[in-house]
Design a protein that fits this description.
186 residues, alpha+beta, Nucleotide Exchange Factor Grpe, Chain A, domain 2, three-stranded antiparallel β-sheet, 4 helices, 6 strands, 18% strand, elongated
Length: 186
């Protein structure tokens, strides 16, 4: 089966052949021209490397900016939470004080309701309470206030929580203040 010649390919091949015929048979370069070509090639390699580094830096910048933007959205309420945590502590103290006073049951109920609403709203916004009682001491979540010699719980376990700890989506805002068990001296 005969193939028809492609006009565009034939024209391109003809132009290349004409350009090759116009060149001298041998091109002689001087040492200066060879050195200039080497210098230009080295400069081109340097520019290519600089381009690749700049492109990588730009890509890293974009990733870092996106991560920082996401963190800013995720942890935007952290300062507000830090100001509200003492209020939560005060509510807990008021509830404990009202529990000791038998005449103010309605006051205690009201305080518990307000405290529950506030804790619920903060939990929906991402605030988590750290409950350390009975847990193994974790220095990333707990702050050891003191140690207590005891045989009832294993060494290194939290005996009592003095102050509640809080975090926002795995970021610690305030460590829980705890008393840690210590094996009695023999």
């Amino acid at each position: 089966m005969d193939q028809k010649p492609n006009k565009t390919t034939d024209a391109a091949e003809g132009a290349q052949a004409a350009a090759v015929e116009d060149l001298p048979a041998t091109v002689v370069l001087t040492a200066e021209q060879i050195q200039e070509l080497k210098d230009r090639a080295a400069k081109a390699d340097e520019n290519w490397d600089r381009f690749l580094r700049t492109a990588a830096d730009l890509d890293n910048y974009k990733k870092r900016a996106a991560r920082e933007r996401q963190d800013a959205v995720t942890f935007a309420n952290e300062a507000l939470f830090q100001r509200l945590i003492p209020t939560l502590d005060t509510f807990d103290m008021a509830i404990a004080a009202a529990a000791n006073d038998s005449g103010s049951q309605s006051l205690r109920t009201g305080i518990v309701m307000v405290a529950t609403q506030l804790k619920s709203a903060l939990a929906e916004a991402g605030l988590e309470e750290i409950d350390a009682t009975g847990q193994k001491f974790d220095p990333t979540l707990h702050e050891a206030v003191s140690q207590k010699e005891t045989k009832e719980v294993p060494d290194g376990q939290v005996v009592q929580q003095i102050r509640k700890g809080y975090r926002i989506r795995q970021r610690l805002i305030r460590p829980a203040g705890v008393i840690v068990a210590k094996a009695p001296a023999a």
